[in-house]
Structures are given as structure tokens and as C-alpha cells.
Design goal:
Pfam family, one: ATP_bind_1
GO molecular function: ATP binding
Protein name: ATP-binding protein
Low-confidence stretches: 52-60, 65-69
Order of helices and strands: EEHEHEEEHEHEHEH
Structural class: alpha/beta
InterPro entries: Gliding_Motility_GTPase, Gpn, P-loop_NTPase
Number of helices: 6
Radius of gyration: 17 Å
Strand content: 15-25%
Keywords: ATP-binding, GTP-binding, Hydrolase, Nucleotide-binding
Helix content: 25-40%
């Protein structure tokens, strides 16, 4: 799927070409990446989940997500049509640091990324935020509002993560398709502005 960004597909005579954009869904272990991809995908999502083993429990911090019984070991994949002529390919990244070597391949050609945050384990967001900032990949932070977690506002989360000015923070419920779709729409809008600003900056 590398190079999916901006690829025309199925354009007929006199019609606008379809555009597919590649989006990453990242974040810490148990933040809801697989759930987000599955809830919004219009196709049966591809999942590479394995049950957590006793060996994995020795290296994966399950504090706060004790009921989680499986984990993504490669990626999740789904697709959603945002509007006529515009679809997103969604790639959910593995959350554990021992699988981060996969991120470079997954991020190639991506329009941008959603970093899912769980306020019970907010520190788990830092590696993903740092990764996308260092590689100049536009992203937003989506706070997955778990019922048992303390409620924080977008500004509080932004300050806690020390985000660059202009990086959006949105609140969502990844189990809800409309909520997840709104997150993706916000990302597409943000990535469009982000790239436009960088084209105009040298001219200015």
C-alpha cells in the first residue's frame, strides 16, 4: 500500500478521479487502535492480533488495561470513504516498542496520522508524538474517552503532551463509527492545511 496517497482509481470519462489517502493510526498499548479501524472500516478489517501470553506479559505493561487479552503484532488495515471520490486506507500500528521497526515501512507515503491517547496512560503517547514530529508527518491526538478514565479537556491534554502549537486534540469514542469518522475528517483537514502552509512558507 506504499504510495497510496493521492492515487487515482477507477476514474471514468468525464468523472473526477477517485483519490485514496493513506492514514496511520498509532498510540500506546491498549489505546483503541484496532477498535477504531474496525468501527469505521467499510470492509472487513484485516487484523494481525495474537493472544497475550505469559512471555508477553513480562515485557508489555498492561497497567490500566488489565482486561486486554490480545495485541496487534504487525498492523490492522481498513478502508473508509470520507466522501464521493475520497477514501482513506487505514493502517493501525502495533503499540509495543518491540514492534516499532515496522513503523518506517507503514509511514511511507502517509498523508498523516491519528495518535490515540488513553488518559489513564497518557505517557504512552510520547513515542508516537515524537516519531511523527521528527519525521514531519502531520498528526492529531484523539483522546479515547474510556468510561473509567478521568475526563480531561483538549487544552489540558495538549499541555501535558507538550504539543506543537496548531496540533489538534479531539475527544472521541473509538467504538462509535460517527465519532471515529469525525476524527479522520479532522485529520484530513489538518494535514491539508499543514501541507499548504509548508508550500507557502518559502514563497512568503
Amino acid at each position: 500500500m506504499n504510495g497510496a496517497q493521492g492515487a487515482p482509481t477507477g476514474a471514468g470519462p468525464g468523472s473526477d478521479p477517485d483519490v485514496t489517502l493513506k492514514v496511520l493510526v498509532a498510540g500506546g498499548f491498549g489505546a483503541g487502535k484496532t477498535t477504531l479501524v474496525g468501527s469505521v472500516s467499510e470492509i472487513h478489517p484485516l487484523r494481525t492480533e495474537e493472544r497475550l501470553s505469559e512471555a508477553g506479559e513480562m515485557v508489555d505493561d498492561t497497567g490500566g488495561v488489565d482486561l486486554k487479552g490480545s495485541t496487534t503484532v504487525a498492523m490492522d488495515f481498513g478502508r473508509i470513504t470520507i466522501r464521493q471520490g475520497l477514501s482513506l486506507y487505514l493502517f493501525g500500528t502495533p503499540g509495543q516498542d518491540r514492534f516499532w521497526f515496522l513503523w518506517d515501512d507503514l509511514s511511507e507515503g502517509a498523508l498523516g496520522a491519528v495518535v490515540l491517547a488513553d488518559t489513564r496512560r497518557l505517557q504512552d503517547c510520547f513515542p508516537a508524538v515524537d516519531y511523527f514530529e521528527r519525521r514531519s508527518i502531520p498528526f492529531l491526538v484523539a483522546v479515547n474517552c474510556f468510561a473509567e478514565s478521568h475526563s480531561y479537556g483538549a487544552d489540558e491534554v495538549s499541555r501535558a503532551l507538550d504539543l506543537d502549537r496548531g496540533t489538534p486534540v479531539v475527544l472521541c469514542d473509538v467504538r462509535d463509527r460517527d465519532s471515529g469518522k469525525e476524527v479522520l475528517v479532522r485529520l484530513v483537514e489538518h494535514a491539508g492545511r499543514w501541507r499548504s502552509d509548508r508550500v507557502l512558507d518559502p514563497v512568503g
